[in-house]
Amino acid sequence: MTTLSPFSGPVGVGFIGVGVISDTYLENLNSFPDVEVLILGDLDTERAASQAEKHGVPASGTAQDVLDHPGVQVVVNLTIPAVHAEISSAAIAAGKHVWTEKPLGLDRESTAALLKQADEAGLRVGCAPDTVLGAGVQTAKRAILDGIIGRPLFAQTSMQWQGPEVFHPNPAFLFAKGAGPLLDIGPYYFTTLVSLFGTVEKVAAMGLKAREEREILVGPNAGQTFPVEPPSTISVLTQFEGGQTGTSLVSFDSPLARQGVVEIHGTEGSLVVPDPNMFEGRIAYVRPFESFGEAPPEQEWIEIPQSGPVTGRGLGLLDMVRSIHEGRPHVASGAVGYHVLDIMLSAEESAASGEFVNVESSVDTVPVLPEGFDPLARTV
């Protein structure tokens, strides 16, 4: 990659896409001294103007207005997944670094081309989820690196419930190709596992659909039905390059609601990691029994105080900006986003074929967030 120049003063940021999730991004980024949101762009320019007024952003307009803005150094891509790669590529062509919501893209070809384009241009790409930068996952990762559970052996994760049609007035897109529970929710869990264990070598998966059509249950379109394209429940086995294995369930078909389950089991203990869709939560571990009589005693949970930032969405962009300035890798990188996409697409292929699928991509060791990382400090 081309050597990147350090920034001088707050880094100019522009948004393309100002849907519901833009609120939390804007609230957080407007509180970070190292960045300055300059313009919001959207297909609906009235909505862009409304969000700009609401959050005190000085300008609004179209996506092209964002790309043409001379002060914008980083584009935040909050468009729909189907155009993530296209919009990010346009931003890179305009000479901007990119932070994009997950997934990085919907296919390997366009997302690999995007990363190649950025590398040749000497620009960075960051990809959500950035929950792995929160105090929860960062504390858990440091505990594992410190050897608190010995050598990590395997992981178990689970996210299951009855599905978004119980609250979302237009849920069809969440059951379309490129979504489903795997590509919608899976990035949180697989990004966490990749952050903790590194490269996944191969996967096996089984999927099912509870039904071919589902019904909207709330809002003005209640009673209408829509098709289900990808599996609405999928179980994934992962084999990591370091020898660890993982078992992961994501489901929109479960009457039992259970989410945020991430357990890491090692030779000297088992660790519970907070919900990877959150920036903080409980971190605790148990030790193995030394011996016992006829019945095992109740295991004692040892709590680990969390440390690190808990701000929320936008941390990944901030870390990327600071990493450019400091000349270090950033945590939620485009390479990690691509590898996670490759894992999930490989799982879909495995579920369709009934065979193990090799994951062709790999990642370098995902760095730990620097100690003392303070989002509210001015560093550039």
From TrEMBL:
Query: Per the record's keyword annotation, is Hydrolase included, yes or no?
Result: no
The residues forming the signal peptide are none
Q: Where is the GFO/IDH/MocA-like oxidoreductase domain?
A: 137-272
The GO molecular function terms of this record are: nucleotide binding; oxidoreductase activity
Which segments constitute the Gfo/Idh/MocA-like oxidoreductase N-terminal domain?
12-126
The domain of life is Bacteria
Q: Which Pfam families match?
A: GFO_IDH_MocA (PF01408), GFO_IDH_MocA_C3 (PF22725)
Keywords for this entry? NAD, Oxidoreductase
What is this protein identified as?
Predicted dehydrogenase
* Source organism of this protein record: Brachybacterium faecium (strain ATCC 43885 / DSM 4810 / JCM 11609 / LMG 19847 / NBRC 14762 / NCIMB 9860 / 6-10)
